[in-house]
Amino acid sequence: MVATVPDTKLDWSSYHNVINGELRATSKTRTAVNPATEEALPPVPVSTEADVDAAVAAARAAFPAWSKTSWDEREALLNKLADRLVANLPEFTDILVRESGKAIATAQIEAMFSHTFLRGLAALRVPEEVVDDAKEGYKVRLRHLPLGVGAGIVPWNWPLLIGLFKIASCVIAGNVIIVKPSPFAPYAVLKVVELARGLFPPGVIQALSGGDDLGPWLTEHPGIDKISFTGSSATGKRVLASCSRTLKRVTLELGGNDAAIVCEDADLAQAIPKVGTLAFLFSGQICMDIKRVYVHEAIYDKFLAGLVEFVKTIKTGDPNDPDTLVGPLQNSMQYEKVKELFAQIEPQGWKTAVGGAPDLKSAHAKGFFMQPTVIDNPPEDSMIVQEEPFGPIVPILKWSSEEDVIARANDSKMGLGASVWSADIARATRMAEQLEAGSVWVNTHFDLSPKVPFGGSKWSGFNRELGVDGIKGWLEPQSLWVATA
C-alpha cells in the first residue's frame, strides 16, 4: 500500500515506513503512549523481515549513483531538508512533547538544534590528502570512500536530533541510510524521513518502524555495512556482538554517569542553577545529564542549601506548560526502573535533602511523573553513585583533595562526559585534562557543536558522532600509491 504526501507540509494523523521513496503501511501496527497522559498515540508500522529486505535492496540500488555525487550536491539537498524541517517546526515540537513527555521548552531546543546541526554537519568536509610525495617516483594519496548502506538506531530521549545526527553524517559522506526509531518514540523520526521524499533519490534515506525484533534484523543483515547505535550500554554490547558476525563497522554512543566537580572557589550563583538544570533536564533522562556532583567540603553545606532551594523552584508537571522543566518519565518501563531506585532510599539509609517521594501519582491522575530528588552525601559505593539512574534523582558528595576527587570521578565503567567548576581556569583545566570521558567541560556542561566530535570512552561507547571525526566514521580510508616515474 502506497500513500502520497506534499513536499513540505505533512499529514500528522498517519505514519508510515519510508521504503524506496514510498510511504508504506504494514499489516500490523502498534501505538506508543503519551507519557504525560498515558493515552495512546497514532498507530505506526510494525515492519517485517521482508520490509527490511526491501529497504536494504533499495538502499543498495541507490548507493552507486549517490556515492558519486559531490559533497556540495549532498550539502545542498541536506540544507533543503533543513528548510523543510523549519517549515514544520511547530508540528515537530508538538509531536516531541507528546511522544517523549519532555517539557515544551526542551522540545523547542531539540527542534531548533535539529535543523542547525543538520546544516552544520552538511557543511563539513573530509578532503583527500597527499600523505607522502617525498620519495622520488611515488605519490601516495589518502582517500576516504563511502562505506555503503548504513543503519541508524535511534533512542527515545532525543529522537529527532539524534536521528538527524545519523542521517546527516551518513548521507553527507556519500552513504545511504535506513533509520530505525525507538518504538517508544517513533513519530518525529518517521516524519522527518517523510520530508526527505522527493528531495533525495529513492533509497537514499529510508525509515522502518517496528518492535524488538527489528533491531537484530538490521544488525545481522549482510546487506548493511555500518550500524550507528545510541542507547544503553547493555543493549550496545548486544549490538556489537550481532554486528561482529558480518564485520560491520559500528559506532556506539551509550550510557553515561557524568560527574561534575565543584571547587571551593566556584561561582555558586552561576554554578548552582546550571548544575541543577543540567541534572534534572528531561527528568534526568539524557546520557549527558549530570549524574554525580562532587562539591568541595569547604562550600558543601552552602552549595547543598542553594541546590535544595533551586530544586524547590523547579516546576514538575504538564510538559505543555512553558514553565515546566521536569515532565514525566518517558515510558512505563523506565518509570518502574527509577521507582525501584527510589525504593532503595530508606533501606540504604540515604539522606534525602529534597524530594524523595517515589512518584507524583497523587498530584497527577495519569502520567509517569516523579519528584526531583537530591541525595545528601551517600557512600561512594552506593547504587545511586555507581549506576546511572536515568531519572530525576542526583547524589551530592563531598571532596577535599584534587587527587581523591579525580580518582572518584574516574572510578566508573562509564566515560561519556564530565565537568569542573572553578574561578581558577588554569586549575580547572588541569583537573579536566585528567578526567576519563569523551567530552569534558569547564564551568559548563552538555555543550555540543556540529563541528566537535561527541562520544564516550569505556562502557560509554566508541567511535564518534559529529565533527569531522564523526563523518570519517562513515568513510573507509584508502591509500592510493601512484608510481609517477
From TrEMBL:
Aldehyde dehydrogenase domain residues: 26-478
Active site (record annotation): E253
SUPFAM superfamilies documented for this protein: ALDH-like
Lineage top rank: taxon: Eukaryota
Keywords noted in UniProt: Oxidoreductase
Transmembrane intervals: none
GO MF entries: oxidoreductase activity, acting on the aldehyde or oxo group of donors, NAD or NADP as acceptor
Protein family membership: Belongs to the aldehyde dehydrogenase family.
Name of the protein described by the UniProt record: Aldehyde dehydrogenase FUS7
Recorded name of the encoding gene: FUS7
